[in-house]
Design the sequence.
């Protein structure tokens, strides 16, 4: 069972995180200050630290850590990443995003981690993921059947795939199905959100850096391309990447080699790249914001994920799925929903697509009575 240390000066935050993570199957220890946290780190072997401090607690920086901060500035995020943070989340914490970050950190091979006795570096081995770890693609509409058929055809080959679609349509889920249905399924699936990384850090994030390459680069760090070696690199929101970074990605794809920041040595990588965007890349090319040669490199196969309004017939199935998932998370019995309420949900525009529908279902479960009615949909959606 994975062991997580929570350092937060707020007792309520510690208790909330402990309760949820213990439910998820983690062993939890908490600390209200840095001194207590360091003592626990010396005595126990942790797989991960969740901390409201932007700097590592152990001097060798061997235990991976995620920063949970009240500060929303880009400067703070940059500083945390430069000190080796796996992720930087701001409060109030989005629990779904935190769980994704934890899974990504613990299931991705890292450089070195401490032994509980000697504190000498040891290598953490990634466990092969099971196919059941991927959520099903819900829907029996012709539009979703077409997406599943494309996945079935494309997954076994090595072709690069570009997934397009509006925000919230499930592009990441399609990418996961492509990976876990492919011969690379037992190798790493590594994600990088190109829109979330400051332009000055994108090169380090993708290709890694050597110790001393820049201020606060206190250790060698592998980039996403290296971490995904043998597996799949999912580059989400690739349309938001700067032109300079696009040029370096193009070189990596052409030569199958990367070079860490601060190094002059090329490293060969065997990576299948799956990219996603909510932008019209051909229009971005016309405007001079995206390289046409990179577009043709990443878009050998293009899979468009339809907006929810284009397959509204799937809304009853999706709603039922979310009702049961959310009820399980809340430890309650699934609520019933009447047919008029489902019909009302099907008439909405859903600009946020499936993500918005899930949020609406959660809101209905919380605010409705014993049964979700059409009136509830009118009031809360």
Sequence:
């Amino acid at each position: 069972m994975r062991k997580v240390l929570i350092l937060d000066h707020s007792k309520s935050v510690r208790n909330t995180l402990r309760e949820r993570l213990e439910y998820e199957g983690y062993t939890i220890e908490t600390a209200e200050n840095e001194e207590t946290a360091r003592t626990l780190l010396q005595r126990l072997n942790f797989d991960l630290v969740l901390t409201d401090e932007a700097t590592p607690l152990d001097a060798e920086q061997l235990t991976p850590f995620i920063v949970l901060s009240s500060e929303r500035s880009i400067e703070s995020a940059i500083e945390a990443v430069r000190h080796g943070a796996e992720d930087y989340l701001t409060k109030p914490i989005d629990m779904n995003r935190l769980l994704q970050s934890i899974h990504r950190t613990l299931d991705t091979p890292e450089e070195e981690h401490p032994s509980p006795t000697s504190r000498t570096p040891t290598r953490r081995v990634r466990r092969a993921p099971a196919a059941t770890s991927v959520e099903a693609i819900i829907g029996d509409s012709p539009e979703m059947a077409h997406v599943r058929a494309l996945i079935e055809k494309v997954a076994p080959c090595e072709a690069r795939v570009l997934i397009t679609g509006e925000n919230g349509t499930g592009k990441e889920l399609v990418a996961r199905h492509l990976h876990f249905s492919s011969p690379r399924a037992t190798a790493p699936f590594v994600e990088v959100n190109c829109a979330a990384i400051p332009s000055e850090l994108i090169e380090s994030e993708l290709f890694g850096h050597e110790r001393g390459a820049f201020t606060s680069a206190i250790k060698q760090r592998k980039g996403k391309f290296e971490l995904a070696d043998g597996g799949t690199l999912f580059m989400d929101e690739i349309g938001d990447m700067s032109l300079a970074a696009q040029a370096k990605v193009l070189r990596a794809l052409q030569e199958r080699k990367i070079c860490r920041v601060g190094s002059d040595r090329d490293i060969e990588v065997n990576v299948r790249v799956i990219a996603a965007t909510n932008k019209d890349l051909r229009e971005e090319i016309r405007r001079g914001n995206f390289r046409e040669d990179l577009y043709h490199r990443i878009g050998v196969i293009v899979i468009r994920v339809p907006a929810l309004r284009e397959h509204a017939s799937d809304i009853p199935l999706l709603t039922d799925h979310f009702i049961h998932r959310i009820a399980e998370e809340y430890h309650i019995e699934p609520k019933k929903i009447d047919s008029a309420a489902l019909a009302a949900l099907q008439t909405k525009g859903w600009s946020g697509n499936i993500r918005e529908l899930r949020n609406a279902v959660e809101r209905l479960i919380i605010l409705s009575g014993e049964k979700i009615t059409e009136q509830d949909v009118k009031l809360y959606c």
Notes: The chain has 15 helices and 18 strands. Residues 110-132 have pLDDT under 50 and may be disordered. The first strand starts at residue 3 and ends at 7. Residues 315-330 form the longest helix (16 residues).
